[in-house]
What we know:
The protein is of the alpha+beta class. Helices cover 29% and strands 36% of the residues. The strands form three sheets. Strands 2, 4, 7, 9, 10, 11, 12, 13, 14, 15, 16 and 17 form a twelve-stranded antiparallel beta sheet that branches. The model is unreliable at 1-27 (pLDDT under 50).
Amino acid sequence: MKKLIYAVSIATMVLSSCSQETPQTGGSSYPTLPLQTEDVTLMNSYSATIRGRQDIAILPQVSGFLTELKVVEGQRVKKGQPLFQIDSVNFAAALRVAEANSKAAEALVATNELTYKSKQTLRAKDVISDYELQLAENALLTAKAQLAQAQAGVVNARQNLSYTVVKAPCDGVVGTLPYRVGTLVSPQMPTPLTTVSDNSVMYVYFSLTEVQAMNIVRRYGSLENAIHELPDISLQLSDGTTYAHLGRVETISGVLDNQTGAISVRASFPNPEHALFSGGSGNVLIPTLREGVLIISQEATYEIQNKTYCYRVIDGKAVSTIVRVTALPDGKRYIVEDGLQAGDVIVAQGAAFIREGEEL
């Protein structure tokens, strides 16, 4: 009986010892992926400011009291449409004086012409000397000069009278109206009467770094070629939505700003629904096609001391490899710039948990 109990105890100890050992496996279940090239379109984002094609400050060209506001804030106006009326009484009177002076000058010219012709007749009969004839001619020339001066005064007076009606210089939208009827205005006033913004087409301004500009030059040959060959661009508005219409890059500055180290770029976007506002902001999205690149999941990589690694499968074992990658905007994938090539097989997921040389 004692021998039986002793045998059972020994067997129990052996089983207990075996249950505490780590299981050994002949391989791992990590998924692998054979790499193939593919094409991918990247959307590069640039912070941008939005301006109307024309934001024209409206200043009076003559001084006077405002007698009428012919528009309201936010009103759409056409080129040449009256915006403001300035008191025109003095300017109308000045025009009448100028016209009267012009008529008097015309009469003086007519009188001097008669005198000159008479002097010519008398000189032909040797009644008067050349000196008197020359005086008559000079008087006629003086009268004609005075007439020209008087006519210029009429033009100037008529122009000043027309300036009392302040008109829109272009199609657009009226801005704020800081002045009211009765305000004395002048061309030297610090704040304009209003601003007319032509927002049928909007200009969107953004900047490229020096490296980005050099990459564009390498890709397209020159900045001039880039303007013609760059694809249509998108505009992401400040609320996160994408603007309904595509735009085009129109100008790229060839001068690097010494303070910011950036090159200014201007794109234009149509604005038929007037959904874009001058002074707004957003992000320009420029698509860039990368052809024949390798795409891997970020889960297939791990980092050590700012270097990115992944595991290639060589002879059934995991071999760590340094790769140079560019992150895609989705935050989940990389473009492999260096370190791998088409046909390589890599561990697709769980790279952070694999050991060097582990069998797969």
